[in-house]
Amino acid sequence: MEWLSENKNVYTVPKGQFIFQEGSLVHGVYFIYHGKVKVISTNQEGKSHTVRLASDGHVLGHMSLDKELYAIGAVALETSQICFVENEIFYHTFVTNPDFALQAMMFYSRELRKSEMRTKCFAQMSTEEKIIYALIYITETFGLDRQKRIEINLGRQEIADIAGTNAEQVSRSVTQLKEKKIITLENKDIIISDFKALKQRLSRYFASEIFN
């Protein structure tokens, strides 16, 4: 740990700036000390889709550790403090610390399983369920404040980018959830009035570990 600490780089990324971009050369692994980040993928038409959210303690760029190009990009949703470890440093840690290598292998295995299960469940969800999933995912990643307001203010299109739909569908589902008193709105902020009821609407997917 001392050796890693001596060879890491820590820097601040302003809101809206890339931590790394799609198509750029993989140089190492990023850890979030403090902040909120979205991991995005862009299709051939140039439309971006949010494939993952990340906050304090999460790892970024870890699915590409060889001399290749990033298939995804990472953007700061707020000013974030990032730690960067170069590939060579990471490789050396694997080689010299078998216990670390084993734990890392188990971590990668869990990450792959979660990704596969989310893809499987997403294929079965209706548009409304995908939007509910997005709201739950945002809440469980970033948390709620004392007023049960989601800790980060994401626009309807940003929520749509997570759910794989459009802003109009998000607005429609948010209105329906408001009518059921599961959520309330304060200006553009979403307040989760009944988080238990929100999760209950996706109870058939809980065993799939899509929220872990």
UniProtKB/TrEMBL annotation:
Residues 125-196 form the HTH crp-type domain. Pfam families: cNMP_binding, HTH_Crp_2. Keywords: DNA-binding, Transcription, Transcription regulation. Residues 11-65 form the Cyclic nucleotide-binding domain. The keyword Transcription regulation applies. This is Crp/Fnr family transcriptional regulator. PROSITE patterns: CNMP_BINDING_3, HTH_CRP_2. It comes from Negadavirga shengliensis.
